[in-house]
Structures are given as structure tokens and as C-alpha cells.
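Hey, quick one: can you model this chain's 3D structure?
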Amino acid sequence: MSARTWRLVLLGPPGVGKGTQGKLLAQAFRIPQIGTGDIFRNAVKERTPMGSVATTYMDAGKLVPDDVTIGLIEERLAAPDAQNGFVLDGFPRTAQQATALDAMMHRNNQQLDGVIEIKVEPDEVLRRLTGRRLCAVCQTLYHLESAPTRLPGVCDRCAGPLIQRPDDDKATVLKRLDEYQRKTAPLAEYYGRSGLLRVVDGNGDVDEIFNRIITALKTSVVRTA
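Sure thing. Here's the predicted structure for all 225 residues.
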């Protein structure tokens, strides 16, 4: 499958494993993984005006405004490494963004090749997100249950203190999940009408889920730009 070009979108609420699976797909198909979270975090780290705006929304568990997100994504898709395919992780999140992505593809004489929706029950998503902990120094990610540190609250790599990101707080997670259901979940129907959507069970180990995605892609509609 890696011999052809793949332009893919991953759908699913926070915590279902889109980032992990996107990385595996990027490696398998030799295409970039493009995640809005990484783009925004880089903007925040560099203290750009757009990064400051994004921080306000992310810390409150809200979606970043479409005009900010769409502009960043379009710039990223124009980069040389994205010309032979990409995996979009976290975009589109709204109907407006999906329409904007279609317009981007049309302007570049391209089309999406597949949309994968990763499904996990809400209670499991809540458990995954609220249990995450991040090293304040080296940014290594842990989980209180599934990937704990040897010493509670201390990073295994650098002995730095562990923190809970503001957007992993339970109240904020619940807001994020509610917003996803209202604004992003309807995109499954949007892409279902085009025949691109494939739904994959997000429970199980990483390799098992990845194999499900590969199997699902084998049944995707073959399209040419």
C-alpha cells in the first residue's frame, strides 16, 4: 500500500489515539503527520500573536477559531513534504473546516483518499485523558495507570516533576468531549456520503488498532485527482 499516494484524515475525539496512529501511518506511507496540536504548540512556544490566541482557547478546552486553524493548515499543506500525501490529525473539526479542506484539495487538483474514524467509548476516553501526566522539563508523556513512572510524580528520564496539562483536567476534558460531539462528530456523516469514511475500533493495543486501519484503507474507494 505504501507505493501509492495517501491523503488521509483521522477523526475521533481527544484520547482515542489519533496522534499515535497518525505517526505509524506517516512512517508506513512515508508522508508527514500534520497535527493541529503540534502546529499550535509550536506557535505558542515561539510566542507568536497567533500562538497567544490559540493558548486562550486550548486552555479553556475550546476549539481554536476556524480562520486561525485553516490558515495554518493551508500553509502546512503547501510545504514540499506534503505534496505526495499526508495524514491530517485533528483537522477538520468543523463543517466549515471540512469545506475549506475540500477547497484546498480542489485548488491543488487533489482529493482525499480516506477518512478513518477511531471509535472509543466516552468513559474510556475520560479515563485516558484525565490520567495523563507530562514531565515539566523534558515533556515526556506518562499515564497514571497504563504508563506510570517508577517513582510517583517523578519523570523516569530526567527526574523532572510531572504535571497535568490544563486541557487534561476532568472538567475541561468533559467540555472538550461535549464540543467534539456537537461540532466534529457530524463530519462522520459528511464523509460517509462521499464513501471515504471507514470506522475503526480504537480499543486494544497500538499494533492491533493500526492493523485495523490498514485493513480499512484497503477497502477505501480508489480515487484519482
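One thing worth noting: The radius of gyration is 18 Å.
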